[in-house]
Amino acid sequence: MINQESRDKFPEKSFPDLSIKLRPEEIISYAYFLKEVDYLTEFGETNVKFKDKDVKGFKAQSAEDKENVEIVKYWDDDKFIISLRLKDDEDELFLAKGFDMTSPKDIVDEINDYNREK
Question: Which residues does residue 59 pair with via DSSP β-bridges, in sequence order?
Answer without folding.
Answer: 44
